[in-house]
Amino acid sequence: MSDVERTNGLAPEAPRPGQRILVAGGAGYIGSILVPRLLARGYTVRVLDRLYFGEDGLADVRDRLELVVADIRDVPAEAWDGVDGVINLAGLSNDPTAEFNPEANWQMNAIATETLAAECVRRGIERFVFASSCSLYDGLPPGMHTEDAPIEPRAAYATSKRYGEEALLRLAGEGFCPVILRNGTVYGWSPRMRFDLVVNTFVKDALLNGALTLHGGGWMWRPLVDIRDCADAMIAAYEAPAEKVRGHVFNVLHSNYQIRELALIVAGSVQLAGRTVSVEEAPAPALTRDYECANAKLSTTLGFIPRRSVLEAVTDMLARIDPNDRAHLTDPRCYNIRWLELLHEVKPVLDSFTAVL
What we know:
single chain, alpha/beta, 13 helices, globular, disordered C terminus
């Protein structure tokens, strides 16, 4: 039984061997977990990726997938040959990268999503799963926000994701079934690792520096989800009957955590491994993100419940990461904004840059 079948209360549709899924941004942090899971379910997978972070994350399945090296803003016609569905993970992946180049962010996260969807409609490709973000709820009054909350995104990243959502919803109808997943902040190990996500950052800091910093006391709330649950939610959304998911938005999270709680989980886990970790407080930054989301719709509509906790993911990361491997822990490719800045220094034509989740 697959992980999807274990976590889904509803029995998913039978896998569709031979059906070809185009995974945009499939060599990225989430894609490197999602693609092997799709292959294991019998799908033919075509990855569309610019590979600015390389393709090492797909090394174990490279001989089993189709790869199109291209920019999400300029998809070659051959990338569409024989495609039955699309999962879109491509684009700039967080606030720092979006703010570094707002125009590139808008073109990749907003316009490219709209263009992909329009091409699906033109070609009769029905299923389209879009990786959006719970960061759209940032700035709302305190409370447990559901998918119908009156969001008013302000930051460049959230604004571009919202435009992508709205473009998909405008096109939804018979023959085109977009499904929007607002993912919480993702945590967990991936072969294309990121250490710039809050839980992963705490693990890195604990191993590298033996200290964790809590800005403003760490009392801010944040919705979080494990990377495997995130990938499996995409599969569940892709395989669900169209009438259940067409034009629907789903929050995808395991739970809402305070940043302080995450630091204590990581510190305790690393200390159990025999290393000393201190937790220190620092002043709050000028801009903080503080919001909570509900995930009831995901479970009631799809029968899918993210189950892998932060504690489980941290334990797994500690088993996989060599604490003495400073080269890995500090590799700029594991920090999206650092890698973008480095590429900008050595290749000024930033408009050719396509980052992935």
